[in-house]
Amino acid sequence: MGQESSFSSNALGEIGLGWDFSKIGDRYMLDIKKATSKDFQDLARLISGDIAWSRYGIDYEAALLLIKSAEDEFYIARNDQETIGFCALRLTGVGNIGAYMRMILVSESYRNQGIGKKLLEYIWDLVIKHVPNLFLICSTDNLRAQKFYERQGFKRVGTLDNLVITDHDEILYWKTGGPLR
What is the reported pLDDT for 79? Predict the structure, then answer.
């Protein structure tokens, strides 16, 4: 598990490790790999600059503290040298039955181009090697994200009232590759 995974695509859509990035477009060189502490400032910048996270009162310093203190593994998506997205994952987030994806974020200027989908596919391929289920929560206000998760095969499990902040609810989502046994 300490092994660093990475895959990339060049502008012609040629790929490594069986990934097809041709739908992302010809202007990106996408690379997804496990983050290191050197990437934490980029991740904090993405979180603090995102409108969806502002409702939770997370500025740059709070985001950096959150990342540094997390038990999650972070996976970053880069275009050339620019970090354009990431995912925070806890493989044992739901005991031995499933992983928990705490965050996924793609920079606003790179959205709707298939990058979030590729990042989620990468995470799913990683998860399914260890546990059969992936869970996440999504704000009830974030309709765009809800549609995205449902298109990626996640099922809505239920609503968690006041989970993170008062008077704001979250939706629990689940994707499965089959039963535990």
Answer: 92
Counting Cα atoms < 13 Å in the Cβ hemisphere of 47 gives 26
Q: What pLDDT was estimated at residue 27?
A: 60
| Residue numbers of the chain with a pLDDT score lower than 50 | 1-25
* Residues 175, 152 contacting (CB under 8 angstroms): yes
Neighbour count for residue 74 (Cβ, 10 Å): 19
pLDDT at res. 6: 38
Beta strand ranges found along 10-143 (DSSP E): 30-34, 73-79, 82-96, 98-106, 133-139
Q: Give pLDDT, residue 29.
A: 82
The DSSP secondary structure of 135-162, one letter per residue, reads EEEEETT-HHHHHHHHHTT-EEEEEETT
Task: Please choose, from the candidates 26, 3, 32, the residue with its C-alpha nearest in 3D space to the C-alpha of residue 13.
Answer: 26
For 108, the enclosing helix (H) or strand (E) is none
Q: Directed axis angle between helix 40-48 and helix 60-69, to 10°?
A: 130
Are the CB atoms for 174 and 134 separated by under 8 Å? Answer: yes
Strand partners, 31: 8, 78
Q: Which two tokens stand for residue 181?
A: 């046994």
Topology of domain 6-176, CATH: Aminopeptidase (3.40.630)
